[in-house]
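TA notes, week 10

Several of you asked for a full example with nothing omitted. So below is the full record: structure tokens for the whole chain, then the designed sequence directly under it. When grading your own attempts, check the secondary structure regions first.
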């Protein structure tokens, strides 16, 4: 079942809080002990074996003693994985690692089982249960123990990968891809596309930060009630400052009612950080940061940058293969469409700049841009060609080994032709012949 956008946004923020699931597990643990006591009050002739109180107490003691240590170990391992994420990848990927369901579920079950054991032990030693209650508590204890074993084995496999660079890149790619698919289905957030010059009375934010979410349904209700049309000047991910407008209000007719800006501001969620939910470009920015960090002299890991470029190619290819978009839901709200130029600017300049001295990275940049240019979307082809020329110009300024440069030029001409290659060389301040023999490396 598809959740409303506002509820989904709140649930995603709760997933980034480590205390939520352990708290739920603790409540369920106490409820389990209460269920065992409730079994004593059921008017049923229980045909069940007699469970000695001492055996239940001993079992609960073992679980209580071990679960505290396991939970402490889990927290220490997760903190180490989170620290590794910031050091090896980028701090912007931290919310995705914290929201890992397997790790959160494991911690919740460890803490919940510890609380269950403590509460059950206290109740049992005070003769809180009868025959049916002890049997129910014993069965719940065995079920909890089996669940802990299964979850622990699965969690050990996950925690070994959680903070690793490859796992972080995969999480960022998945988050960016999901956001990109949602935006391709609703390219204007469910509203109408904004075209032409901006008209109307501007309204501004009273705070600074990043736009995290727009309540399109609320804006539609306001516009319908006041007989207005609203045009947004920002989209999720945009930097918001009081000096620049959030949008513009244009009366539909002479009967339109006046509206205060504070009513409109309530539909905009502004915070200090960007989120992946409604901001496809943020995923691209985070991938570019990971790739650029890998290319720094201190790390010198071109393989990671090449992997990042592969992720970028898959994400942008998803955008190029846009299926038919959903019909607009909010016909009184106009929203700027996502810009292909901006998406390419988020990724390729940084990686092309830092990877220009490395032939393997420069070759992969040309390959990815060339493949994106062949996607069939005219606008994306024009933008990819522009970035390929810029990347070629950067590489020509720093590559001083002639065979490497010749190989890169051939890769560029493979996708854009000899004339385009000549233009790229002029942009870089160098020239080369249009009819050079193809290197053996590309044969």
């Amino acid at each position: 079942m598809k959740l409303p956008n506002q509820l989904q946004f709140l649930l995603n923020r709760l997933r980034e809080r480590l205390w939520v699931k352990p708290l739920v597990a603790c409540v369920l643990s106490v409820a389990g002990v209460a269920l065992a006591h409730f079994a004593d009050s059921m008017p049923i002739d229980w045909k069940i074996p007699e469970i000695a109180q001492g055996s239940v107490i001993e079992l609960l003691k073992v679980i209580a003693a071990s679960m505290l240590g396991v939970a402490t170990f889990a927290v220490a391992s997760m903190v180490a994985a989170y620290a590794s994420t910031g050091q090896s990848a980028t701090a912007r990927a931290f919310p995705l690692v914290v929201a890992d369901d397997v790790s959160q579920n494991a911690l919740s079950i460890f803490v919940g089982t510890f609380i269950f054991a403590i509460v059950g032990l206290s109740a049992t030693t005070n003769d809180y249960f009868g025959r049916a209650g002890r049997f129910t508590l014993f069965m719940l204890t065995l079920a909890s123990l089996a669940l802990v074993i299964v979850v622990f084995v699965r969690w050990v496999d996950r925690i070994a990968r959680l903070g690793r660079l490859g796992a972080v890149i995969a999480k960022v790619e998945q988050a960016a891809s999901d956001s990109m698919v949602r935006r391709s289905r609703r390219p204007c957030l469910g509203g109408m596309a904004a075209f032409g010059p901006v008209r109307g009375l501007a309204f501004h934010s009273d705070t600074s930060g990043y736009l995290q979410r727009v309540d399109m349904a609320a804006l539609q209700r306001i516009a319908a009630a006041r007989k207005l049309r609203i045009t947004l000047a920002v989209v999720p991910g945009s930097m918001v400052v009081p000096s620049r407008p959030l949008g513009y209000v244009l009366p539909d007719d002479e009967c339109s009612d006046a509206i205060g800006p504070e009513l409109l501001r309530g539909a905009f969620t502004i915070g200090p950080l960007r989120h992946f939910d409604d901001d496809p470009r943020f995923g691209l920015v985070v991938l570019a940061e990971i790739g650029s960090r890998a290319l720094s002299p201190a790390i010198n890991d071109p393989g990671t940058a090449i992997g990042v470029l592969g992720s970028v190619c898959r994400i942008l290819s998803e955008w190029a293969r846009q299926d038919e978009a959903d019909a607009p839901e909010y016909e009184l709200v106009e929203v700027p469409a996502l810009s292909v130029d901006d998406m390419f600017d988020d990724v390729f300049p940084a990686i092309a700049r830092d990877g220009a001295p490395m032939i393997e990275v420069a070759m992969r940049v040309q390959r990815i841009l060339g493949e994106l240019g062949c996607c069939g979307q005219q606008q994306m082809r024009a933008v990819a060609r522009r970035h390929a020329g810029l990347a070629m110009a950067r590489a020509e300024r720093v590559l001083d080994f002639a065979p490497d440069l010749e190989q890169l030029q051939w890769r560029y001409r493979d996708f854009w032709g000899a004339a385009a290659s000549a233009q790229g060389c002029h942009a870089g301040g160098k020239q080369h012949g249009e009819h050079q023999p193809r290197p053996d490396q590309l044969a």
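The chain has three domains: 5-163, 188-271, 280-325+337-442. Use that as a sanity check on your answer.
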